[in-house]
Design goal:
four-stranded antiparallel sheet; 463 residues; disordered N terminus; alpha/beta; 26% helix; TIM Barrel; Immunoglobulin-like; 21% strand; single chain; 2 domains
Length: 463
């Protein structure tokens, strides 16, 4: 992962244009709306997924020669300018004997997550699967000598969770792909097209072929450095052949738009009009495990991020970075358990929901706080957010009001309202005028982080 995605990729060439236009494939301009809606249906309804960044970088865990290396954990080879031979030696210490695919999937499921995307290969080029294209993989280069993706695919299938694979197609610091900030080891000098043909294309074929007809459900490309139309076309050809219905993001390069926008570590103020999108975020400051990163987001932040994203029509892909032993860090598990507890009560207002009808910024305000230097600063805050389903509004209240709560004007008659946390659906008092809707609420909030009020509308109203 990286914070700043390269968005200025080359204009698509005629070869790629012909490929994309040839059939109703992912990203194809000729795909009908009905075809696209059917293909994207599960993903749009899922709303919440788990990102997993796991690899050899979890062995040094942010330290090289006992010194901390700045930046995110999975970039340690690049940031520390570690020679290939030295970095590859970490694989001998990578033995995740505590990895339990069933437990990982259960953690995701209990959190209310409906899909998982795991790094099959990150920028260090280490394959987390049994690859014939490169011996630099978990089966051949580590004492573990097993393919964890097979176990994870089986566990996901048994639980009903969709599994997707992240694949770094361009940057590969050990197998001869591109490198951010230049190459620091003569062993990295390699022809990019040779790498694409001999490593990337065969490995994409492997991850699309070896895990069942339903896996991967998502192919998550990353960092299109030095990609062009011809290189992208060679990868897309394999996808078209093996998984024409797969969902892909917008990070392949070569002019390929993909199915989804991928804001990283931020929630766009207004979402993406006319585009499916997914915010990916860490729980602390890193994607891959770093033993000294304890800058954990609060459960409140995670839940409110999820609500904010859903209110703007997006999905939330929340990351965990397992250790070299194969354990998801306890602070991540604790937070996911808390999110799951909230989702068991309020998931109806998230899964399969549509964006707010009031505008993305409705329910926001700015509040004053002190910055690190003690000066007054303003930051956006939220009072409420809204998601919708046919005939229903779900108002997520972050700051519980005293007395009446006022909503803007609603297009349609509100027939009743109740608290989603109330199993008896006791009706709330509603006053509706042309200027808005007033709700009389009880004194105490059902949930200190986000309480949901359901407004039932006349059956003719749809969002």
């Amino acid at each position: 992962m990286r914070t700043n995605l390269l968005r200025n990729s080359l204009v698509v060439g005629l070869g790629l244009a012909a490929l994309i236009a040839s059939a109703a494939d992912p990203g194809n301009d000729t795909e009908t709306k009905e075809q696209r809606d059917a293909r994207m249906k599960w993903w749009r309804e899922a709303k919440f997924g788990m990102f997993i960044h796991w690899g050899v970088y979890s062995v040094p865990a942010g330290f090289y020669k006992e010194q901390p290396v700045r930046g995110i954990g999975e970039w340690i080879m690049n940031r520390g300018k570690i020679p290939c031979v030295e970095y590859q030696a970490f694989a001998k210490e990578f033995n995740p004997v505590k990895f339990n695919a069933t437990e990982w999937v259960k953690i995701a499921k209990d959190a209310g997550m409906n899909y998982i995307v795991i790094t099959s290969k990150h920028h260090d080029g280490f394959a987390m699967f049994d690859s014939k294209a490169s011996d630099w993989n978990i089966v051949k280069a580590t004492p573990y000598a097993k393919d964890p993706l097979k176990e994870l695919a089986a566990a996901c299938r048994q639980t009903g969770i969709k599994l997707g694979f992240y694949y770094s197609q361009a940057q590969d610091w050990n197998n001869g792909g591109a490198a951010s900030g230049g190459k620091w080891d003569p062993a990295q000098e390699h022809d990019m097209d040779d790498y694409i043909d001999k490593i990337a294309v065969p490995q994409v074929r492997e991850i699309l072929s070896n895990y069942g007809a339903d896996t991967p459900a998502v192919l998550w490309w990353d960092t299109p450095r030095d990609m062009n139309a011809g290189r992208a076309e060679r990868l897309l050809k394999v996808v078209k052949e093996l998984k024409p219905g797969i969902i892909m993001n917008n990070r392949l390069g070569g002019g390929f738009k993909g199915d989804t926008e991928t804001p990283e570590q931020n929630i766009p103020a207004n979402g993406f009009a006319g585009r499916d999108w997914e915010t990916c975020m860490t729980m602390n400051g890193t994607w891959g495990f770093k033993r000294d990163d304890n800058n954990w987001k609060s459960t409140e932040t995670l839940i409110r991020n999820l609500v904010d994203i859903a209110s703007k029509g997006g999905n939330y892909l929340l990351n965990v970075g397992p250790t070299s032993e194969g354990l998801i860090p306890a602070p991540s598990v604790e937070r996911l358990q808390a999110v799951g507890k909230w989702m068991k009560v309020n998931g109806e207002a998230i899964y399969g929901s549509s964006p707010t009808p009031f505008g993305a910024e409705a329910g926001s305000f700015s509040e004053t706080e002190k910055d690190k230097k003690g000066k007054a600063a303003f930051r956006p805050s939220w009072v409420w957010r809204c998601t919708t389903k046919p005939g229903k509004l779900y108002v997520h209240l972050f700051k519980w009001p005293t007395g009446e709560f006022q909503l803007p004007a609603v297009n349609g008659k509100v027939t009743q309202a109740w608290l989603l946390a109330d199993p008896e659906h006791k009706p709330l008092k509603v006053k509706q005028t042309g200027s808005g809707v007033s709700l009389s609420l009880p004194e105490a909030a059902p949930d200190p982080i986000a309480s949901v009020v359901v407004l039932d509308l006349a059956k003719t109203e749809r969002f």
